[in-house]
Structures are given as C-alpha cells and as structure tokens.
Amino acid sequence: MKNEQRYKLIWFVPEEALDASREAVFAAGAGRIGDYERCSWYTPGTGTFLGGEETDPTLGERGREEHVPELRVETVVPGDRLEAVVAALLEAHPYEEVAYDLYPLA
Hints:
The chain is 20% helix and 35% strand. It is α+β, with helices and mostly antiparallel strands.
C-alpha cells in the first residue's frame, strides 16, 4: 500500500449532470481504489439556496429560496491529482457556484 496522501471529494449536483461530473473527475485522476477504477458513491437529497440580485441560478430564480433535488457524490482523489480533479469538477459542473468538500483521509 502506498503511503501517499489521499482525499475524499464530495460534491452536490443535479441528477442530469451526474454522469458528466463523474466522467470529468475520473478522467482527471479520481476514483481509484487499489485495482478498481471509477469508484464513487452517491445518494439523493435536497439542496437549498437563495440567490442574490447578481446571481444567475441554473435552477430556480434569484431572490427566492429554492429547494432542488440533488445528488451527493463522493470519490477518492490522490494528493498529486487534487488540483486537476477539482478544476475538472468546476469545469464540468452546471452551477454558477459549485458546492464541494475536500477531506484528507487517514
């Protein structure tokens, strides 16, 4: 087992953008566990937001609190691919502001 730093990347995406966002992060180097590739986990939930006057929401309207169905997606990222994977996620994701989390793994 390699002793390199790995991270858990979590993002929130509408179902219609699931495949494109997964493809982008996998192509950039995420999702490998041992001899397995394209490893991820996702589950449905509800995202909420209220866009200000200068926003252009992909879903819903500015100035109104929105409740939208989304998927929470998780995958692993090797430390040396972190910047490329996050950049790929941001490029592929349809939202104006992408909500994502990064956690170092022990």
